[in-house]
Amino acid sequence: MNRFKKTILLGLLSFLSISGFSQEFEITPYTGWMLGGRLNTYNGYAKVKDGQNFGIAISYEIAYQTKVEFMYNRMASDLEIHEYAEDPYIPFKLSNDYFQVGVLRELMDDVIRPFGVGMIGAAIFTPQDSQYSAQWRFSASLAGGIKIFPTEHIGIRLQARMLIPMYFGGLGFWCGTGGCSGGLSASSAMVQGDFTGALIFAF
């Protein structure tokens, strides 16, 4: 967890130092419900169980109605293994973290502002078991929603998002018949998603 905190801090400091304080900033802590997604295998599938997620988005305006945004997202859940002719089982809990940067485009400049977001970055999957190491993957995301600003500096953000960690073949912490094995033979990529609500603090 200390490594994650340091990574977040360094990312935020870099983000702020690049942008300076002359632009319009939005700091948006959020929470919601995340769909963990599933990964098909030759013996069945592995599923990250759905659960509550939380995170923060920090953005600054680079052009009219256009912002660069940094996002951190986290969910802790169970990894559930489903194999043919076997009962499902949970080998361990799994932390799922995203660090991404991208562009947010607002479609209106009013009290209610529809928007869309495209981002790229890293997805990190960390088993809560010391015998397995974290797995890093390139990731992308697409999101859409609305911002509502009843006041100039405080708003509400409602969003739906699709998160895509890239191809998962060869992850070293997955489990197979008879217990945990050294890897996973995958036949598809994983798609995750979430629905979130947030407070916006605009400066």
The CATH class is identified as Mainly Beta
- Give a short account of the largest sheet: 8 strands, antiparallel, barrel
Shape: elongated
pLDDT averaged over residues: 83
Radius of gyration, Cα only, in angstroms?
19 Å
Proportion in β-strands = over 45%
Quaternary structure type: single chain
Number of strands: 12
Specify the structural class. Answer: mainly beta
| Poorly predicted segments | 19-23, 179-188
How many structural domains are formed by the residues? 1
SSE ordering: HEEEEEEEEEEEE
Describe, in plain words, how this protein is organized in 3D.
- This protein is mainly β.
- It has one helix at residues 2-19; strands at 25-35, 38-41, 44-48, 51-63, 66-83, 89-106, 112-127, 135-148, 154-165, 175-176, 179-180, 192-202.
- The chain has one domain (2-202): Porin.
- The chain contains 1 helix and 12 strands, in the order αββββββββββββ.
- The two termini are 30 Å apart.
- Mean pLDDT is 83; it is low at 19-23 and 179-188.
What are the SSEs and their pairings?
Layout: H1 2-19, E1 25-35, E2 38-41, E3 44-48, E4 51-63, E5 66-83, E6 89-106, E7 112-127, E8 135-148, E9 154-165, E10 175-176, E11 179-180, E12 192-202
Antiparallel strand pairs: 1-4, 1-12, 2-3, 3-5, 4-5, 5-6, 6-7, 7-8, 8-9, 9-12, 10-11
Which terms summarize this structure?
62% strand; 203 residues; eight-stranded antiparallel barrel; two-stranded antiparallel ribbon; mainly beta; single chain; 1 helix; Porin
